[in-house]
Specification:
Length: 196
């Protein structure tokens, strides 16, 4: 897949037909390699601090034109290893990191908000860095950990954990202790009777 971007605005353009000429101004495209000295900022992912190295970038030779064409191979694999890094990050996730993780796991904002018992509007403010603790888009450590667990379980095949973490059922405050009556029937534990 080949995408052309103009400046830093992540505008999706039609694929470049001729690799030699700029599809915006017709000037010659020059191919350069993103190196560790000149890494490619992967801002179209929504993450500000991700840089790609060793990928070919074609840039328009016209100084007046900021057209750029970049081919990113195996995007799904790249996003998977970025997800793993973010899930094991030692610091609280930023709003844009939460959005990246959520989108890559295929979870709708409304759905994640319900799982966290927060409103979609609040989650949106968090992801945009406009709310949360210290107004930096951070949720507290408990919500942060819950988000990571929800994301991790979407990639796992653990049915019990999926049922627990992906359910949108609200936990209610308990009025009185619940009773679990566990009958032993012929050396086997039978169905538990639950009463409140
Ligand atoms: Zn151009």
């Amino acid at each position: 897949m080949e995408l052309t971007f103009v400046g830093n605005r992540a505008k999706r353009r039609r694929p470049v037909v001729s690799p030699q000429a700029c599809d915006l101004c017709g000037a010659k495209m020059i191919e350069q390699q993103a190196t560790s000295d000149t890494p490619y900022p992967y801002t179209i992912s929504g993450l500000k601090n991700v840089f790609l190295v060793n990928i070919p970038i074609k840039r328009c030779s016209s100084p007046a034109c900021a057209a750029e064409s970049v081919v990113i191979p195996q995007i799904a694999a790249l996003h998977r290893i970025l997800t793993e890094e973010l899930l094991s990050k030692r610091f609280l996730l930023s709003g844009s990191e939460i959005r990246f993780l959520r989108k890559n796991a295929g979870i709708a904002a409304k759905s994640l908000a319900a799982k966290l018992n927060i409103t979609p509007a609040y989650l949106s403010r968090v992801e945009n860095g406009k709310s949360g603790k210290n107004k930096k888009g951070l949720l507290g450590p408990q919500a942060d950990k819950l988000i990571r667990a929800i994301i991790a379980v979407t990639y796992s095949h653990d049915k019990e954990a999926s049922k627990l973490l992906l359910s949108e059922t609200e936990m209610l405050p308990s009025k009185r202790p619940m009773t679990f009556t566990c009958p032993l029937n012929r050396d086997r534990w039978g169905k538990i009777a639950v009463a409140q």
